[in-house]
Amino acid sequence: MVDLFAAGLFAAIQPQMLLLIFLGVVVGIIFGSIPGLTAVMAIALCLPMTYGMSPAAGMSLLVALFVGATSGGLIAAILLKIPGTPSSIATTFDGGPMMEKGEGVKALGAGIVFSFIGTILSIIALVFVAPALARVALSFGPHEYFAIAIFSLTLIATLSSGSMTMGIFSGLVGFAVSTVGIAPVDATRRFTFGMVELNSGFSILAVLVGMFAIAEVIKVAEAGRAGSNIRIMAPVMKGVKGFGFSMKEFFEQLPNGFRSAAIGIVIGILPGIGAGTSNILAYIAARSRSRTPEEFGKGTLEGVVAPEAANNAGIGGAMIPLLTLGIPGDAVTAILLGGLMMHGIQPGPMLFVTQADLVYTIFAALTVSAIVMLIVEFYGLRIFVKLLAIPRHILLPMILVLCAVGAFGLASRIFDIWTVLGFGILGYAFVKAGIPTAPFIIGFILGPMAETNFRRGLQLSQGDYTGFLTNPISGAFLALAALSIIWQIWSGMRKRPARTSS
Amino acid sequence: MAKSRTKGLVVGATMLLTGLIYFLLAARIPGSGGVDASFFPHMLSIGMILLGAIHLFQSWRQPIAAMPQEMSGDIIEQARGAAEDEDAPAGEMAPDYLSVVLSLLLIGFFVLLMRPIGFIFAASIYLFLQIALLSPSGKPIPWLRLALMAVVVSATIFFLFRYGFSLMLPAGPLTPFLS
């Protein structure tokens, strides 16, 4: 394993790769820091650039974007008190007050350093857990894959924001959209309406870019000409040494950082919930374990360290099911999956056997990205602060044009741009109706996996449905799926009487 | 609250209708009756219809309770809600649907014109009009600077992708002049 990692590291520090990682981290931080721009957008926009690259170079760029964008959220969270990404929501709770107290640099410095520590710890977990899990997953058959897909689908539908009804509905619509095209197993044509372009179904990228990027552009249009008057406070950098906090403070925060990173990694592994949830859970955990819980919300360092260590720790965590099973945990890993497939790579346990060098190059690229992020974010802070001032009414139309370029690049067809636009309108409708979009994406990706494996599994067990329950792994996952739904319904019913009595 | 009830009813009805349409379309898939290509579409459509009905029922039964936030009791939802509110640039302003429709039309024309007049011209016109449309009111729009920016950005994207990443975007009338 060590020699494979060393070879990966050697590949990742070649000048061309370093340049790509540097660019990826910088663009990622920009997208992460500007509210309204997301990691998904950053990756979607850079995907067409990777078409001509080797898989290793392309994936290095994409993971660098992922690392940069996850961490970049802290800049807006501290300076503007607006989370740049959902994964920095809890950072605003104490980052904002610290900024107001004149400790902005300290908050930023601690956020950056613990983002780095969180990322590195999660990469260590990834490097040790993923190959072991992949070895276990090698023995998985259709029964297991069907059950894991159903488990992941129920988890995301029940745990995502909004009501459970909406979450499950969103997942079902995503699944339904994935049924367009030629069916698995028997190759029947479904819902193509005689259009040849629909035979292969909708591309993951068209769906993702539409639902996440175009829908965001339409949301900006909704605000009309009212414009935004965000006031940006610049942190006082004068007389600041190092990262703005003392070694004593650093060591004091280490247990908090490690605990938060552990929360981030575990939450990151679970499909359906990621950094958006783990940063808040880590914040709550830090508050309950703190000796000074009353300081939380007033600008305490612990309150910045916890969410930032946790959200970046989600990176390595989320990569585990993605690489070993081909299951993305959220929209960002879904688009990374799209990137891998674009290069003809099918994530799953076989990847560790057939393309171990690529897997370890990805691990190494993550490590290098974390180091680059640490350096770039601290020394380039002044520039990123300036970028926050770029008006969104100029930025988002340009992003739309780039999305169109990316969609066209899929197969040089204008048809794909129309698809992106169509999914953009659907994504906007979802936002308006209060339906969460993440379950849709996971339903779209895991739907075919569930369907194919269900039908194959049935063929294997000669049409006997009990095969899914008697197989221990498949049975356990299906039981967990059922439990998660029952638990949600139960907790929903428990809350309702409490509310009516209040 | 009456507004949120109406919204709940409309959303529920749309969910139900989506399920019904999908069910009817699924019925047209040739099948053998067992677990075939139409099995999952049928299951999914039944699920959608049920969920639509549940949502309709919930919205109809809870006219006064704060129904859209069924799970807003926990801290995660509150934080998410707060973040989404802050993300809205103009606070409690009414959505400008005219801008939305015009923007969608602009995007539509951009895609429609991309082949005939080429990417550079189509993108320049789109960027110019879209940015002008969304520019904050009350400030004069720097027309010339905007036009220049639209052309420079479009041309940069076109040439960067054509020569940097070998992606041949439609060149339109410029085709004979490009290598």
SSE topology sketch:
The complex is a heterodimer of chains A (502) and B (179).
Chain A: H1 2-12, H2 15-33, H3 39-50, H4 55-79, H5 89-100, H6 104-137, H7 142-159, H8 164-178, E1 181-182, E2 189-190, H9 204-222, H10 247-269, H11 275-289, H12 302-325, H13 331-342, H14 349-354, H15 356-379, H16 381-387, H17 392-411, H18 414-433, H19 438-460, H20 467-470, H21 472-501
Antiparallel strand pairs in A: 1-2
Helix pairs in contact in A: 1-15, 2-3, 2-4, 2-15, 3-4, 3-13, 3-17, 4-5, 4-6, 4-12, 4-13, 4-15, 5-6, 5-12, 6-10, 6-12, 6-15, 7-8, 7-19, 7-21, 8-19, 9-17, 9-18, 10-11, 10-12, 11-12, 17-18
Chain B: H1 2-27, H2 39-61, H3 75-87, H4 97-117, H5 119-134, H6 143-164
Explain what you see.
The complex is a heterodimer of chains A (502) and B (179). Chain A contains 21 helices and two strands. Chain A is mainly α. In chain A, helix 4 packs across helix 5 (89-100), helix 4 (55-79) runs antiparallel to helix 6 and helix 8 packs across helix 19. The longest helix of chain A is centred in the N-terminal third of the chain and has 34 residues, at 104-137. The termini of chain A are far apart. Helix content of chain B is 68%, strand content 0%. Mean pLDDT of chain B is 82; it is low at 65-92. Chain B has two domains: 2-68; 97-177, no CATH class. With 179 residues, chain B is mostly helical. Chain B starts with a helix and ends in a 15-residue tail after the last helix. At the A-B interface, helix 5, helix 8, helix 9, helix 11 and helix 17 of A face helix 1, helix 2, helix 3, helix 4 and helix 5 of B.
List keywords for this structure.
heterodimer, A: mainly alpha, 2 strands, B: 179 residues, 2 domains, flat
Number of helices of chain B: 6
Structural class, from secondary structure content of chain A?
mainly alpha
**In oligomeric terms, what are we looking at?**
heterodimer
- Summarize the main sheet of chain A: 2 strands, antiparallel
SSE string of chain B, helix = H, strand = E? HHHHHH
Tell me the span between the first and last alpha carbons of chain A.
58 Å
| Series of secondary-structure elements of chain A, N-terminal to C-terminal | HHHHHHHHEEHHHHHHHHHHHHH
Number of strands of chain A: 2
Calculate Rg of chain A over CA atoms. Answer: 22 Å
The amount of beta strand of chain B, in percent, is under 5%
Strand count of chain B = 0
Please identify the structural class of chain B as seen in this structure. Answer: mainly alpha
What would the average pLDDT of chain B be, to the nearest integer? 82
Q: How many DSSP helices of chain A?
A: 21
Largest interface: A-B, 86 and 85 residues
Number of domains of chain B: 2
Strand content of chain A: under 5%
Largest sheet of chain B: none
Low confidence ranges of chain A: none
